[in-house]
């Protein structure tokens, strides 16, 4: 029985409260990248008690699918690991303990085909354990448990209807407890307090509507409280964090309003306030809430501005009363074609706030305030709910995993670096050290830049770390650096004094240079004569834009366009050197070449079978419809799959026994190119048709037409093609239709036979006897030829007779 008692926050459903931004929006203080020549993305981020930053993300460069990296507070890579399990898998969740232990979870198998991985990596980068369970079709999140030292995993149990659950593991990866929902409730993010109480954001499907839900379990897995937000439209529950006051703070999403929903609860899940936080003119979607420990809370998500088509990351900061502190938009599009996609947020022990995601080139750093940011108080009810949580059976088996070092370069913002795993500091604690980095291009032609650091405050001596943005760095105070190519480089300076106080500064260096072509692809390669062949180049201009792409296909043909793709048809065999040249807005050019091999086009094999299915003993026809795009078919050969063969464009074959046969046609064109096609023919034993007919009238008479109807005949496994009638008087007829007319000239008994033939030449017949009557002869006489009125005249018909019977009237 589902209980539902209302906790009313206020009397009205929604109260509007417009709160202006209290201060300027934050700016990304610095940004670090990690990645190779493939595409990487920092899907998840966490920070340990020493301020070391961990990124868990995806990579396309290796089949492992996921990487984990650790950096110190200065941004130096301490270790990086590819995590492989011998198959396709994708990272989903990460939880970092204060000592640097990392718990992770992910989806094993493509298209949610297998189950869930749970693992633990120690602070030195070694794999402590990795487990597999099929209890979840997909995991959703993982949270560190400070009481047990283990972790709590949330996930989806079934897709339809949507149900989910949670289970806890200890520090060794052993199952502790679990709870699955009987009703349609799916848990997502979780946070665990110092008492071991787990607070979990859920999404609840009830009566065709999605509700944001909230549930709490104690340290042993006993359900404590459960709530759902009773709004009339669809809402989702996504994230939860703990404030410095010990209260859980909640984040959901309103599909109707396209706004994040934030809320504060007591540890007993008594709601204190609930509100929309967002912009009425943006589609903004919040997916994570964190607390830096100063009684403010960052709501992180994505936005889309439908007025100008811009999209990117959005941050709203509220205080413990729900008041808006500030807001910021970080565009996903930057100068020179740079991009940034933010996917996660985390806080450090000193209150630093970090964003994580993927970047290309030098991404945008400056957030702009959301001009119409506001909070709207929601005074709807959080109802007491019951999703039927129960203890499940969860089996965790050991899963062999390997860790290897991919040796990804760090802080490489060059064009050819492609997408990188990126993280940046959105806010940093106040520091007594102040630093300003400056750059002076001393040799523009050779791209030589002199850097200097202006440092004040703190306690000298200072240490310096320069990151030049091209995967190179220096620890000098005033280094010189030569860049190998032009580009836009965010040069980052970190200064640390003797008391470990740090200052950060970024200076952008823009160096001219020709465009860079990072990849040229030809498809297909080898290609064929007269076949559509596509060409594509990937490139960018480090200090401007590419205005023209010129393709030379090597056969005298060219193509010019403002976009980087082209197509071409080669008319002759050979190997061609294809060259693409990119020209930028400064007139500088870069070229790259690839070889393409052009072959004779193979023939196209095609045939059809008639009939199919066929039957034993019936001649089956095979028709060759093959063709050659650049020549002609020289030969056609058949393998009927029963040990016999044939040649020619048309063949007939009779199968001796029933079965399924794989028939192959092999065709060779005039250039010797070969193609083949297989088709299956089913050979059955033919069932004979059934003959049946009727006739009318039932007492036929000689000289009159008789109608014979054979349409009641049928074929059990096909259809009747011919009806043949033998009328028993030496005449017969065959027709494609099932009825006939016949006139008997003589009376007497006749045997009529109908023979039906089916579509496989199977025949059957039936015979019926009928008697054709000869009509009687009428004759009469009278005593005189003339009569008189009133005088009887006698007629005598006794001379009438019936030659094959008697007259009855």
List the helices and strands and how they pair.
Blueprint: E1 6-7, E2 14-17, E3 30-34, E4 40-47, E5 53-59, E6 66-71, E7 77-84, E8 89-96, E9 102-108, E10 115-121, E11 127-133, E12 138-144, E13 151-158, E14 163-169, E15 175-181, E16 185-192, E17 198-206, E18 209-217, E19 223-229, E20 235-242, E21 248-254, E22 259-265, E23 271-278, E24 283-290, E25 296-305, E26 310-319, E27 324-331, E28 339-347, E29 353-360, E30 374-378, E31 382-384, E32 389-390, E33 397-398, E34 402-404, E35 420-427, E36 433-443, E37 448-457, E38 463-467, E39 473-474, E40 480-482, E41 487-496, E42 502-511, E43 516-523, E44 527-528, E45 533-540, E46 546-552, E47 558-561, E48 565-568, E49 574-584, E50 589-599, E51 607-610, E52 614-615, E53 619-624, E54 633-639, E55 645-647, E56 650-654, E57 659-669, E58 674-684, E59 694-696, E60 705-709, E61 720-726, E62 732-735, E63 739-743, E64 748-758, E65 763-772, E66 781-782, E67 795-796
Parallel strand pairs: 44-50, 52-58
Antiparallel strand pairs: 1-31, 2-30, 3-35, 4-5, 5-6, 6-7, 7-34, 8-9, 9-10, 10-11, 11-33, 12-13, 13-14, 14-15, 15-32, 16-17, 17-18, 18-19, 19-31, 20-21, 21-22, 22-23, 23-30, 24-25, 25-26, 26-27, 28-29, 29-35, 36-37, 37-40, 38-39, 38-41, 41-42, 43-45, 45-48, 46-47, 46-49, 49-50, 51-53, 53-56, ...
